[in-house]
Design a protein that fits this description.
about 30% helix; about 450 residues; 5-stranded mixed beta barrel; Rossmann fold; alpha/beta; 3 domains; pyruvate-formate lyase- activating enzyme
């Protein structure tokens, strides 16, 4: 009797748009599907069905999402839509009526059920297809660690609470368990993300749990300290300057977590911040920045800003430039204001002309570049610790502790071909320009084994 022909596992492709938080959603969807026997396809033509995880924050992001859905339909034909724009099913189906299913952000079960309907899974309970740390779309040496969903703020330019709901923090033991599994799997850098990292645990009333024989609260300070026990790089993103952020800086000075803060200040002019419904005491913030740097001289601060917000005057913009010059932020991004469907700021008076927005954006980014370049030049002649991201036949590219992947600067090591992604090295800096450094490897660092207490 001939042996039965082996069944071929169905394949799922995914297009992940938007921020790192959406990327984590995509990873969680793929982890569930892989656990059910699905293979992951890196191309349209190799997939039995394609998931498009959309972004719906800005009008330009919505347009990009609709374009990506159209491309997936043209290239594959079977398309499931999810993510932040998924809440606007009417618009999606008006342009792309052939999509198989539409769901909103972090509705993982709805996506999995839609995949089941499109291409049923094979059932093989004897085979484990998912590693303990889950599946990730990042390189194997770093991973995003999402600690909460949603947001409890009400910024006038933002609709994240409407899209993703109110703040919903994960239990601290769940986060630490995931972090530990990632470290055990060889991840050497964790990037902590959420909509508002400083607010972590507010909705849980900072509930205390037992972790490895000691109490740990659902609170940023306790979480950062516990993550620091892993012995790998830990980088904090989307940190709002709540008072308790001061408690995290000593952990950075001690080397337990990276000396890096990503704080979305958005603006500095008091009346603009008030219109944005953001805290408006930037003079006090300047004092805290000075204090943080006294405690941790190596601290790198990245931020994002919006120029051209409705009602922003030339004086407001000049105040922003003056504040930036005094703050001397290390890494800066800037967006030109866009209306967001459903945001309160759309109805504000005195919208800024697009040409003025563009001119202010260019002036702001040039001011930021000059600050960054001066800081980079000051690092020439020093030795910095670097994690390797890429290696080819011309050399290696990595990042210092002051640089997060994809958004910050890089360190170029020409001729250093005997390295691998995830390696930690010390580099003597020989040249610098804007946000980037060039140098020579002077020492390879044997990374400490992650520290676990079972």
């Amino acid at each position: 009797m001939p042996s039965p022909r082996p069944q071929v596992a169905p394949k799922v492709g995914i297009v992940s748009l938007g921020c790192a938080k959406a990327l984590v959603d995509s990873e969680r969807i793929l982890t569930r599907l892989r656990a059910e026997g699905y293979d992951i396809s890196g191309s349209y033509d190799g997939a039995d069905v394609v998931i498009v995880n959309t972004c719906g924050f800005l009008d330009s992001a919505r347009a990009e999402s609709l374009e990506a859905i159209g491309e997936a339909i043209a290239e594959n034909g079977k398309v499931i839509v999810t993510g932040c724009m998924g809440g606007d099913e009417k618009t999606i189906r008006a342009m792309h009526p052939s999509v198989l299913a539409v769901s909103g952000p972090h509705q993982y079960q709805a996506v999995v059920e839609a995949v089941h309907a499109a291409v049923p899974p094979l059932h093989d309970p004897m085979q484990s297809l998912v590693p303990p740390e889950g599946l990730h779309l990042t390189p194997s040496h770093y991973a995003y660690l999402k600690i909460s969903e949603g947001c409890h703020n009400s910024c006038s330019f933002c609709i994240i609470p409407d899209i993703r709901g109110p703040l919903a923090s994960r239990p601290v033991t769940d986060i630490l368990g995931e972090a530990e599994r990632l470290a055990e799997a060889g991840v050497r850098e964790l990037l902590v993300i959420s909509q508002d990292t400083s607010a972590y645990g507010l909705d849980l009333r900072h509930a205390e749990s037992q972790w490895r024989g000691r109490p740990v609260r659902a609170h940023l300070t306790d979480l950062a300290s516990a993550l620091g026990d892993l012995g790998i790089w830990v980088r904090l993103h989307y940190v709002y300057p709540y008072p308790h952020v001061d408690e995290v800086i000593p952990l950075m000075a001690e080397g337990r977590i990276l000396p890096y803060l990503d704080i979305p200040f958005q603006h500095a002019a008091p009346n603009v911040l008030k219109a944005m419904r953001r805290p408006a005491n930037q003079e006090k913030v300047l004092g805290r920045i000075r204090s943080w740097r006294e405690t941790c001289p190596d601290l790198a601060i990245r931020s994002t800003f919006i120029v051209g917000f409705p009602g922003e005057t030339e004086d407001d913009f000049e105040a922003l430039l003056d504040w930036l010059d005094e703050a001397q932020l290390d890494r800066v991004g800037c967006f030109k204001y866009e209306n967001v469907k459903g945001a309160g700021a759309n109805a504000f008076a005195d919208h800024v002309d697009e040409d003025v927005k563009e001119e202010r954006h260019q002036r702001f980014m040039e001011a930021a570049r000059q600050i960054a370049d001066a800081k980079a030049q000051a690092r020439v002649g020093t030795v910095v610790e670097v994690i390797i991201d890429e290696v080819d036949d011309e050399g290696a590219i990595g990042r210092s502790k002051a640089d997060s992947p994809e958004v910050d600067g890089e360190v170029y090591m020409n001729g250093e071909t005997d390295l691998a992604p995830g390696d930690l090295v010390r580099v003597a800096v020989e040249a610098a320009e804007d946000y980037d450094l060039w140098g020579e490897v002077v020492e390879r660092i044997t990374p400490p084994r992650p520290r676990f207490t079972r």
